[in-house]
Amino acid sequence: MSLAMSLTVVGSIAFDSVRTPFGERERMLGGSAVHFALAASLFTTVRIVGPVGDDFGDDEFRVLHERGVETDDIERVEGGESFFWRGHYEHDLNVAHTDDTQLNVFGDFQPKLSEASREADVLFLGNIQPDLQREVRAQCSARLVGLDSMNLWIETTRDALVAAIAEVDCLLLNDAELRMLTGEPNLARASRAATDIGPGVVVAKRGEYGAALFTRDDFFAIPGYLLEDVRDPTGAGDSFAGGFLGYLDGVGAGTKGAPEPDLRRAMAYGSVLASFNVEGFGTERAQSLTSEEIEERLREFKRLTHFEEQRVPNPSGP
Ligand code: AMP
To answer: Is the full-model pTM beyond 0.85?
Structure first.
């Protein structure tokens, strides 16, 4: 029997050192699974799966526990070191430059999920080695499975990644990564080509420009919520995925035959969660986020993207 409203996520649980034009931070709490979990926890119960080292302490666990995230499946490896990522952004914040990636305890992680994690309704395979994503996928019976990845895995483990994508319902990737994966320069064609690998839904994340959702015969697109103060885009993609899948789990929808209005609302929630994430460094903003703030920004987002149809009479004819 599956647990009502519950979501399992596997992905990196990390320390991030980040430099943007607006500042610099050393060893902040980060990782794809962490950013995702904090966003999704505003909609549903989240269980996070993955290894950490001795360096992952009470302060880091507290951030997750304060949001009600279940951490029983976080494995603490004695003598090990947590995943570490160092990156920077130039004036164009849409492009992340990786300076260092240390898999550390993820290097020989063999996932063994608890029963509660295996039985979740929704599973998110956050960015990490595709073989690990597949090992977790194989243990879960979720009705809706989403997957994210990045250029590193497209370049170094493409076959494993394609095999992982073939086993999910929803693929979420950056526009540039979709082009790289499929070899198609046009985003609509690239997204359609990605649905041919298996997932019925492909979400192309487009940084500050928003996101587009493609099914085999339809599409829906929304802009980004334009902010005047963006400090650190790290984790925006994972927060988007957390809002998107968290909302779908919260309303009990799957993407296999999910009602179109639910998918559209999920896109809006994804954008809203991503927009909050980039306002602060690391998990700073997500930690203090409330449901009221989310609903308020969602209403504002709806107002900003709405228009009424009204034709101008054609002066040269009927
Ligand atoms: P994004 O949402 O795309 O900005 O993802 C940012 C997060 O991805 C950071 O918190 C990093 O710790 C994590 N990350 C960076 N590179 C990798 C990688 N190769 N595998 C897994 N996670 C990564």
So the answer is: yes
